[in-house]
Amino acid sequence: MAESVDPIATDAMAPARDGEAATGTVIAGGLPDLAVEAIGLSKTYRKTGRNPAKLALDRVDLAIPRGSLFGLLGPNGAGKSTFINILAGLVVKSRGAVRIWGIDIAERPRDARAAIGVVPQELNIDPFFTPFELLELQAGLYGVRRSERRTAQVLEAVGLADKANAYARTLSGGMRRRLLVAKALVHSPPVLVLDEPTAGVDIELRQQLWSYVRDLNRAGVTILLTTHYLEEAEALCDRIAIIDRGRVLACDTTQALLKRIDNKTVTLILSSDLLDVPDQLRRFDAELRGTRELVLRYRPSQVPIDEILAAVRDCGLALADLTTEETDLEDIFLQLTRAARADRKP
Ligand code: ADP
Ligand code: MG
Fold first, then answer.
1. Containing H/E element for 184?
2. Whose CA is nearest to atom 22 of ligand 1?
3. Nearest Cα to 262, choosing from 232, 303, 296?
4. Which of 58, 81, 196 to mutate to test the pocket of ligand 1 (most atoms within 8 A of CB)?
5. Comparing C-alpha atoms, which of 63, 72, 71, 10 is closest to residue 35?
6. Quick one: which H or E segment has residue 189?
7. Of 99, 157, 241, 285, whose CB is crowded by the most CB atoms within 10 A?
8. What angle do CA 217, 221, 225 make, to 5 degrees?
9. Ligand 1, atom 13: nearest CA belongs to which residue?
């Protein structure tokens, strides 16, 4: 989140090379192709008091390639935090398997946890420690040897070097979030997971955070983030999984997802009144709004925009303005979730 990240510090945060985790665990067979893999992962929260049992994840298959900046996108209650918390070892899965950096979380939970750093959704920081102390404590918990600690460097990288010895309670919200990122990085995990990193965060900090996440990713860290902001996933992630009600509805590269809906709208603002849609334009599903606005719809894969403009010229229409609208992730998201919900109605 530092506006410009010190390359030395960024490099220091890159995952250890040659398949060797920071804790010294040698992972057989070198670097895995998948940073995280979930196979048939389900989670049912047990009934408690008046709350009925809840199926929060329903046979989730997800493959997160090493080096990707992966977005887990879904509305509130979709199961995103449940997924993250299973990776973090905070929630116990009900069924299925998960591997982090090639390590099965059920077989070798400690090694799996060493391969991942998790930034939780809530800003839970002990107010009576300083950032320096908090990071040292965290490094200790992860068994990072004193000689291998890079506490000052990590603080520098998140732009908190000058707050190293301030009480955490005196830090602003933005600084606290950066401190949580630093905390997740002390053991140089090759995979960094951020649960809704920008929920309730102002625009400036959001931009800083995005740029910092991109820098880490460029330095080789695989990033998994959850979000319910579509623009965030679209702007930041190279791959996106859309989940809703515990199920994966789509998982693809961002580009491929955006191409799925082959639909565009062009709006013509006319410089004189029009009373009816000209026949030549009916094939573009034309709709007249008032007398000066004409909306045309087309499939960019089948109809070049030139053809539409030529048809408009042939009708002798004079234009005052013209705008086109791309489909965005929101359209795809709505289409997928509506279809899935319709399918599952009894
Ligand atoms: P998201 O992070 O996408 O908003 P969550 O994973 O937090 O979704 O929640 C998924 C579903 O599981 C929700 O219906 C939520 O109410 C339920 N849930 C989450 N945590 C618990 C819990 N500890 N006990 C019972 N139900 C839970
Ligand atoms: Mg959540």
1. helix 173-185
2. 45
3. 303
4. 81
5. 63
6. none
7. 157
8. 70
9. 77
For the structural domain made of 7-258, what CATH number should be given?
A: 3.40.50.300
Distance CA 115, CA 214 (A): 19
Using CA atoms in the order 201, 207, 211, 217, what is the torsion angle rounded to 10 degrees?
A: 50
Ion ligand 2 residue ranges (Cβ < 5 Å) = 80-81
What are the pLDDT digits (tens) for 97-147? 999 999 999 999 999 999 999 998 877 788 889 999 999 999 999 999 999
Q: Using the mean position of ligand 2's atoms as its centre, give its distance from the Cα of residue 119 in Å.
A: 12
Report whether residue 187 contacts ligand 1, using a CB cutoff of 6 Å: no
241 lines ligand 1 (CB under 6 A): no
Give residue for tokens 């579509």: 230
Task: Tell me the domain boundaries of the chain.
Answer: 7-258, 262-326
Evaluated on CA atoms 6, 253, 301, 288, the torsion sign reads negative
Q: Across the chain, what does the average pLDDT equal?
A: 86
Indicate if the alpha-carbon torsion angle 317, 322, 326, 330 is positive or negative.
negative
Condensed to tens digits (0 to 9), the pLDDT of residues 311-341 reads 998 999 889 999 887 666 777 777 777 877 7
Residue 341 pLDDT? 77
Kindly indicate the confidence band of residue 345, based on its pLDDT and cuts at 50, 70 and 90.
low
Token pair listed for 137: 């404590």
Taking Cα atoms as reference points, which of 299, 301, 260 lies closest to residue 283?
299
- Edge-first strand listing for the sheet containing 319-325: 287-289, 293-298, 264-270, 319-325
Domain 262-326: what homologous superfamily?
Answer: Alpha-L RNA-binding motif (3.30.70.1560)
Q: Which residues make beta-bridge pairs with 51? A: 48
Closest-lying ligand 1 atom to the alpha carbon of residue 196: 2
Tell me if 236 sits within 8 A of 329, measured CB to CB.
no
Cβ of 210 below 6 Å from ligand 1: no
Phi then psi for 324, rounded to 5 degrees?
A: -120, 155
